[in-house]
Each structure stands twice: as structure tokens, then as C-alpha cells.
Design a protein that fits this description.
Shape: globular
CATH topology of the largest domain: TIM Barrel
Number of helices: 13
Bound molecules: 2-phosphoglyceric acid, magnesium ion
CATH architecture of the largest domain: Alpha-Beta Barrel
Strand content: 15-25%
Order of helices and strands: EEEHHHHEEHEEHEEEEHEHEHEHHEHEH
Distance between the termini: 29 Å
Radius of gyration: 20 Å
Strand order of the largest sheet: 4-5-8-12-13-14-15-16
Length: 404
Amino acid sequence: MSRISSSGLASVYDSRGRPTVEATVVLESGSRGRAGAPSGASTGAHEVRAFPEGGVPAALTTFRETVAPALLGVEGTDQATVDALLHSLDGSPDFSRIGGNTATAVSVACAIAHAEEKGEPLWKVLARPTVDGSRFPAIAGNCLNGGRHAIGGPDIQEFIAYAESPRPEESVAAAIRVHALLGEELHRRLPKQALGRGDEGGWVAPLGNVPAIELLAEVCARVRDELKTPVHPGLDLAASEFFRAGQYRYKEQTLDTEGQVAFVARLVDRYGLKYLEDPLEQESFDAFARLTKEVGDRTLVVGDDLYVTNEERLRRGIERRSTNAVLIKVNQVGTLTDTLKTVDLAGAHGLATVTSHRSGEVPEGWLAHVALGTGARGLKCGVLGGERVAKLNELLRLGRADRT
Ligand code: 2PG
Ligand code: MG
């Protein structure tokens, strides 16, 4: 137990070069924590606001004038108290006054200080009662970028290698191998084409949606043979991004809701998808349920924009059996306490959780601890780029610590 003796908030940059915030919390004992908050591009309509009006400068002013004085003397190792204080200082339903990224950075920085205070790794401080740290998450590694994360790519946002070895080093190696082979294949098939990388480090190439899935599935099969590691294709369609006036508008086709359910179900079977995030737009709880009924026995159906890590929205999804999994992003909801409530609700109803990065990330590893401590089925954190590798490397470190 130790009170907060000082705290600070500073402006830093995320991996897209956009400003974000990082918080520092110092306890009376001398233990300290520092954490930065990431930002999304395909943000769900129901997420908390990352920054107050006025952006990062306004967040810094509000922190200095309102948040820092209130944190002084508060029990910094009591996560629930810190997070409740952040809510009461904000007073809005969506952190629009102090900013969700300020809340995230402070909340995580306190948890890190708490871990230091106890002399334990962060994941243990966050660990749910049923978690002993022996089961490692699968890796959902984004290998080809589209949608809002890539200019000139497919409409589907993320083409994912879903590697589910119980050994983190095998899953990480398999996801990285899929990324590398995919690059080689793209160079071979599009020899005159300059290839780029998108916001999450995946390749960007002028491919149609289905040819891109086909290529990903082929490469995953090769890596399965080569490394003997279970790695399968997955998608984050981020379907809200191309849903307009009741229709899913791809470059190649326009589908109504039933057409989209049938199209995605066919993709699952044809290409052996094992990971399917946001295949439908963010209000379609019932259409999600129809799709999950059809394919939920053979793939994870994951709600991201659908739930935005929000307990109430997840409750609606559970009632309707919308999905069998939920994506967990701390800064969608603002604090670790809110995040853990959603994790616990998912666990109580048998839904898997997948802990996720954002497209604009900070080069820190704390997300791997959130994944391990919450018993997540998967860690979605990309494959390449220092900010993605920071999380993979941290998971590898945790894997080694666990075995020694
Ligand atoms: C997503 C995320 C992360 P963003 O849609 O799942 O991959 O993207 O951070 O842009 O919301
Ligand atoms: Mg998503």
C-alpha cells in the first residue's frame, strides 16, 4: 500500500506520428510507473473520446489543473479507487472532459507502479482469479493491411495470421514467417509493383479482397507444414468502415446484411478462417448472432466495434448470442477497472477474450501483461514495426520467466 506522491502527463508520439499522452505516477514508497496510451483509426462509434476538445494540449492542461492535484495522496495501488476517481473527475459518460487516453495512461501507470511496489510482474497484479500465467495467448498478427490502415489496399482492414501454439515462441515465429513469406509471394506475383507497409506493419498491395484471403490462406498452409505450428488465416473486416445506407460496399460488390452473412460464412469454410473480427457493422447484434450460429463452432467470431470493451454492450451481445469472443482494448473504455469488468463478464459467460493493440501504438510492452493476466485466448498486436515487436518480445520474456 502506498499513496501517490506525484504524477505527470506528457505529450509523446504514437507509431503514426500523431501526438498522444504518457503518464508517470510516483508512489510515496518511491515505486513508479509510466505508460503511454495508443490511438485507433477505425474507432467504434461507442468508444470513449481519446482526447478532450482541443486534443493533446487540452488534455495536458486539464491534467495539470484537475487530475494531478486530485491524485495526490490517493492510494496508488488501489486500482479501483484510482479509476473511480478518474471517472468522477471527468464526470461525462465518455471521458470527453479529461480524455480516455489520459485515463488509460494514468490507470496503467498506477498498475505498473503497483507491480513494482510488490516486486511482481505486471500480469500478476492484473491476474484474474482463474489465471496462473501458464496458458499463453495465441498471436493474431496482421500481415496485410487494408481499409483505413492502408492507402490503395483491399477494403477488408486486416489479413491476420492466427497462430495458436501453447508455446509463445512458436506462435510468434509462425506469425512472423507468414508475414515474410507473404512479402516474398507479393514480390513474385506483382514484380513491377512497389509494395508498402500499412499502419500496423502489414503489407499493402493492390489486391482484391478475395485474392488477398486466398494468398494468406496459401501462405499459412505453407508455414504450417514448414514449422509444424498451427497457424491459420483470420480477418478483421472492420465492416462498419464500408457499411453505408444499409449496405456493405466493397470495391467489387455491394451486399445487404443477409448477403454479407452468407459471403463471410462462405469465406470461413472455403479458406479455413479461425479468427473473424467485426464481420458486420457495429449495431448488428442480431446479424452477428446469425453468423455465429452458422460458423461459431469453427472460428472465433470477435466483436470489436460491436462492444468497444464496454460491459453494457457486451451484455447485449451475450443476451443475443452475438459472438463467441470479445476484443479487449483498454483505451476504448478508458481504465483497467472497466476493462477487467468486461473481461470478467466475458469469462462468466464462456466468451473468449482477445487483447488488442491499436493501429497507432506506443512502443511499450504492457499489453502482453494484460493478455497474460486476463487469460486472453489471443494477443492481437501485429507482427512488424518496433511498437508491435515490443509486445511480442515482452510475451517472449514472460514465456521464459514462466518456465524458469
Ligand atoms: C482494430 C484496430 C486494431 P484501430 O480495428 O481492431 O487493429 O484498429 O486501432 O484503428 O481501431
Ligand atoms: Mg477491429
